[in-house]
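Reopening this ticket.

The earlier resolution said the output was attached, but the attachment link was broken on my side. Pasting everything inline this time so it's all in one place.
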Amino acid sequence: MDDKLRQSNSDDASSEAIPSETKADVRSAEIDGSECLSVGEKRKAAKKRLPMIASIKRRTTLNYFLYGVAILLFLWIMFFVGLNVFYGSMLTREVRDLGSSAVAAIPKRNDDNSMELFFKFRLSEIALSNSVEIIVFEEDGEGGYKTDITLNALEGEYNTDAVVFDSIIDSIDVDGLFVRDGSAEVLSTPRGKYICYGNSRIVESVDGGNIRLFLMILRPYDIYNSSAMKVVYTLIICSVIVLALSFVFAFFASNNQTKRLTDFSNKAKMIADGDYSIEFSGGGFDEFENLAHALNAAKNHLQASEKLQRDIIANVSHDIRTPLTMIRAYAEMLGDMPLDENKRRTTADIIIAESDRLTALIDDVLNYSKLQSGVAEFKFENVDIGATASSVLSRFDIFRERNGIKFSAEIERKTVAYCDQQRIEQVLYNLITNAVNYCGEDKEIVIRVMNRGDVVRVEVTDHGQGIAEDELESVWDRYYRAARSKRSAVGSGLGLSICKNILTSHGADYGVESELGKGSTFWFELGSVKK
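Inline output:
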């Protein structure tokens, strides 16, 4: 039997190490499981995005470029609107101002010398310097009009040819134009479209009478003239340059902005491969800094979770193997050796105890899983906590006889609370088991149940080695016992974490008070009876 037990201990030691191939397979299975999408879902996802703009970098570049195109398009629309509206109005205003100055220069007296000087020099200067045609005419006394002079700015001369005058005068409403002295408007004539200005002035004749002279200025209404087209050509060249610069800017700006996301993606792949040494950085941008902070926190939690998973697998595997090995060894002993009745009974008791230990371990794992997943059911009712504590404590009588542990119960009367009796029994059992594992040399454990106003307070005290102050919050974590390397202790290492989940579900306050070398007191408080 001793050889078999030594062999079982060797098996226990070998079970501590988990093959790296197994861990790699587990990690690979986890990654594959997280990426398992149906073929239909993958096809739908592929249809929703175009291959050319599937990446954020390309889409950002395209968005910047389209933004530049939209601005240029707006500028072109505003240019042509302004050219037709504002530039046309400006030309009309210039012709009106020019006509007003020309009319103001007409001599007051119609003598040959002054009128000839006016026609030959003053009007000629106005026509040539402003690229307009000027026509001066008067009424012929028979209801018609006769021309006095026509000045052509392009030819640089003046004459009395009536051909130009006749082609213009027949296409305009003289009364409508000249009744509003000093007006200018756009008119269509057989010779083309003109801005036409009309005004008149009374001139004293040489015989003492008065003559009404009509002065008309014509300027071709050509918005898209050579000057305007030069502006258009310049705008086209500038637009091409701006579009090219816009694309270059869009490329580098999107590259700079998406570089951080690419870095995040690469580092996330490194984490998926098990490298937790990397750190995410936001590069000074608030949004990226927040994302980096969240990813670093997720990485740390994942690292801690993976480490905890390895610890739990290693330690629970050890705890499961130990009773299984014991059961097998003693079972083989029963089958191989002729034993007397007392020794057979002792061996059977050991097998039963180890089976119970294995069952309790599995129950702890299952209970913890239910509590973590939120599927555990609670049945709340008014429960006598004192009686419940006494009942749970009676299950530890075997420790009195076998290990010499002394249990003291200080239970007040009428300690009734509103809770789930079965779950609170589990909390009490786990806390007392923890105290048994870590009791001091005096092997004394005290259980107190007290009324504290509107709550019932329960305390479990041991006189063991105690807990360091910086570890008080950690004792409620999963498999904290593994962190302290207390392999001699009995149990799954999930007991206190199960207590934490049950008490949290009850909305109860709980905690631990401890001092190194003097022991620890675990406590919790439940709301008193619900009326």
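Reporter confirms the inline version is readable. The CA atoms of residues 141 and 211 lie 11 Å apart. Residues 286-336 form the longest helix (51 residues).
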